[in-house]
């Protein structure tokens, strides 16, 4: 499947399928040296397709064809063509049955697409185009069929045999083998097919739906993980209830299963009735998972479950519509997480990810619209733009329509399109039809790539009491798209008086009581808004709650930011003011002489924060995090990584020195508060104490060192143990660092997920993760090139989180990454292509970096037989 000039696929060339499949009957014979797949397809010509005599075209990838038969008669040479990547039958009747037998080798499948083996069990991953690695099939999401699947395998090695739907038959076979047959009553695209066979323990629970149906809930995991299922099971039940309460969605099958596998390219997969999870995204216990991991698991369990409606019952017509299911489902899971924890904190986390990573993607060579117009390899389009920006687009619709109309819209969408494969436009139309709102211009959010820039200027006229806001929007050019049209942007804002009180927002000419916050709807390149009746110059609080995924430019003074940081009633903007201030202070030190001082008011502001007993502790914990290096790089014109790193370290050191006593008090205030709990308050306390510890160790505080060692030894949970370990690893206490790392590994060496944490703490640290140490980690016995989590925890963490080391001015970090990408490209192209990402933004960096990043990309480009995945990323980056 290697190719030098992969084809580009265009949305504009979409055609309905020439043939539809009503029924798929599969029989899997699983063996140690391979698997035989018997497939019977019930096919008919698509009445909506104009082509009456079209050949039957079935996709295939890495298949050995054993036989083909049409309506029971074997086809002879000449009656079909096996092209390797397709099986073509030139002449078929209007309705027929096609029987195909293929042989595949799951045990040698390192790409982890299709049927493969992970820790001794068989499992599948079919999205986006993995089903064609199992058998020949029209592998496109608008072909929806009913599946019946019989699995046969050795009973002692594979006692558990699972597929989609309900189990309908099982029995014994000769030679110690057995079988189970599954039937899925809901028509589905092949990408939602799943199969699992293994020696797994079963965890059972039940859920009673709103209409009183009892659903069997099952988790299947390796025996060693039996104790790590409770949290995910509970999250599943909460998700099921939430989807009923908030969206009126009831589960449809009688059984819902979750399987954990160690080797998985992504986080998890929403296969109908049989979700398959990367172990790291589902298994958790207090001793082995951090708070962040618990929250991630809760969100991913919910995400996959929510797909049952937004993705499975209503699916995508083609892969250009990927955000139809992903954007909507991420929006749904973020609403769920907000409801389960702290909404402000969740909003901060989502906005941080968007501004740090999605804005960067949108400004880079792989920028694409939420609904792309073309691609070479669809696996490269499971991006932050499709997922996170797509979710922001749905959020804006939600905010424009309001809760009630949005619910009417989603009800209409599910009802109108149940059982169909549809487009993002169908989604928007349902929202329009239900609410009566015109979302015509809004649709540009799906079509235009690039992050809109909203520039705000203001003037205040004391004599008339009028405050004028001029708001301009522009959308930068992106590859293949120039001269963009203004978009429909909901822009939430408030105005504050000098005493910190919100001021009424009375637009000129308006009567009635003026609101204290409003959402301006921008639709033109420039607007001028006049607010009247203001007796003082207000401080504007702009884009409250991050009401649109845009960059806001406004010439804030440091006084204004300090003011907003302590007074803005919008929690998100309070946090944001602190971030903007810190960014401004750090930026002013980038490249400045060593003697340049740090803004002392920043210390005062953080001191007030630390002493603010009224402030929501979860918000405080977020406000104490300095903007990341990645975000500072994203904001820079021509990033000088070393200078940014130094400036940030300097500010961190200055703050920690200046606030030493307050940090120590914060630490002590937040330790030892009883049993481990996962409430927002308890999570905030752990975050506060670990941040304080990290800052104090950063400045080499001896008392903090003792506390860190004690916490490391005595912690009853992974958040605190890892918090202490991370603080030690990132400190200059080299000996303590080594000892702690050794002790940690010894304690957890038999738990792959914790070993991954151990790898990533080192790989992301500029103290423990310089290149020679990274190479040692790759030689560590626990490292495994075939396991994507291990690759991510070392190579991925190094390139994405250890920026000073990765961007070593000598170019060694880039060379290293190029080497690993080339090595992985042969075994797992999806993972290889994802690892290239840090190099793709080479134009963004100062010349010394940029040139070397480019040559690393060229080195990858020149590798013989590049996969389509890596080819697309590298060639687009160099174009
Ligand atoms: N649909 C899944 C994500 C996913 C996509 C591709 C995969 O393999 C290439 C695996 C999972 C989700 O959104 O969770
Ligand atoms: Zn998804």
UniProtKB/TrEMBL annotation:
EC number(s) stated in the UniProt entry for this protein: 3.4.11.2
Cofactors (names): Zn(2+)
All copies of domain Peptidase M1 alanyl aminopeptidase C-terminal, residue ranges: 559-879
Keywords (A to Z) from UniProt: Aminopeptidase, Hydrolase, Metal-binding, Metalloprotease, Protease, Zinc
Sequence ranges assigned to domain Peptidase M1 alanyl aminopeptidase Ig-like fold in this UniProt record: 450-554
Aminopeptidase N-like N-terminal domain span: 25-192
Biological processes, Gene Ontology terms: proteolysis
InterPro entries associated with the record: Aminopeptidase_N-like_N, Aminopeptidase_N-like_N_sf, PepN_Ig-like_sf, Peptidase_M1, Peptidase_M1_dom, Peptidase_M1_pepN, Peptidase_M1_pepN_C, Peptidase_M1_pepN_C_sf
Name under which the protein is recorded: Aminopeptidase N
Organism: Marinobacter nauticus (strain ATCC 700491 / DSM 11845 / VT8)
